[in-house]
Amino acid sequence: MQIEIGGYCPGAIGRVAEMHAAYYHRHWGFGLFFEAKVATELAEFLGRFAEERDGFWTVRSGNRVEGSIAIDGLKAETEGAHLRWFIVSPEIQGGGWGRRLMSEAVAFCDRRAYRRIFLWTFAGLDAARYLYEMFGFHLVSEAEGERWGARVVEQRFERDHSLSISR
């Protein structure tokens, strides 16, 4: 089946929440709080989505969403653009789709001259951290916390990009 990157499609909110819930439950013991948080916040984001400011990409195999990433640009000018909901299903992991999603998101921010991109994650997600660092993100803070409903070492990564743009 052909795999491609696109934007929103019907069922994307549920599928992205499902992928996050299944992965983080299996590997980290996260539960209902986390799944509800992903679904609620993703639905809120897509409900106020503005194409000129925000980005949302899915990897699809046929009609099934197998990965996602988003850029929330609501506070890009003051706090930075927020990279969120980055995940690739086990079915397509290792095929370069995570790298392609990161490339789409970072290129989107560069085109909009967002000077900072940030994301929240936690210690132990080594494959994702490798990709973040490959794309110029640096760890700027870490502390124990329960942002996701379980105690983990939360980490904030940032990518600062000074651009000279002639308009």
In short:
The chain has 167 residues and is an alpha+beta fold. 34% of the residues lie in helices and 31% in strands.
What is the tally of helical segments?
A: 4
Structural class: alpha+beta
Give the mean pLDDT: 93
Provide the β-strand percentage band: 25-35%
Q: Please compute the radius of gyration using only Cα atoms.
A: 15 Å
What low-confidence regions span 5 or more consecutive residues with pLDDT below 50? 163-167
Description:
This protein is α+β, with helices and mostly antiparallel strands. Helices cover 34% and strands 31% of the residues. Mean pLDDT is 93; it is low at 163-167.
Helix-strand blueprint:
Elements: E1 3-6, H1 12-28, H2 32-47, E2 55-61, E3 64-72, E4 81-88, H3 97-111, E5 116-122, H4 126-134, E6 138-145, E7 152-160
Parallel strand pairs: 4-5
Antiparallel strand pairs: 1-2, 2-3, 3-4, 5-7, 6-7
Helix pairs in contact: 1-2
Keywords:
4 helices; globular; 7-stranded mixed β-sheet; about 170 residues; alpha+beta
